[in-house]
Give the backbone structure.
Amino acid sequence: VIYEASNFEQYWYQILGNDRKSKMPSIDWNNEMVIALHLGNRVSGGYSMKVSEIELLGPSQINVTFAEITPDRGFQSSAMTQPYMLIRVPRFAAVLSTRRVGANTSIRVR
């Protein structure tokens, strides 16, 4: 969970490496925060993730349920990839928990 612009800027350039062409999204840090989800290293392209639910479990706990989407069979890039997702949510002091459902599981997005 990222609460401040300076931390987000450092994070943004860390995940993009030397690619400074991508414009950093505008975040209203007084009212919003960012949740960063990472799948880690994957051996090819075509991996992604899909969030099925973001739920507030109490006054200071948020849970994100997501699934890893694996590539279809066939041609894929042979480069190592590191899929990630950034989620902008209303700001509050939160403890984050995540729940991962099975790969390619059909999930309902609300």
Observations:
- Confidence is low (pLDDT under 50) at residues 105-110.
- The CA atoms of residues 38 and 84 lie 4 Å apart.
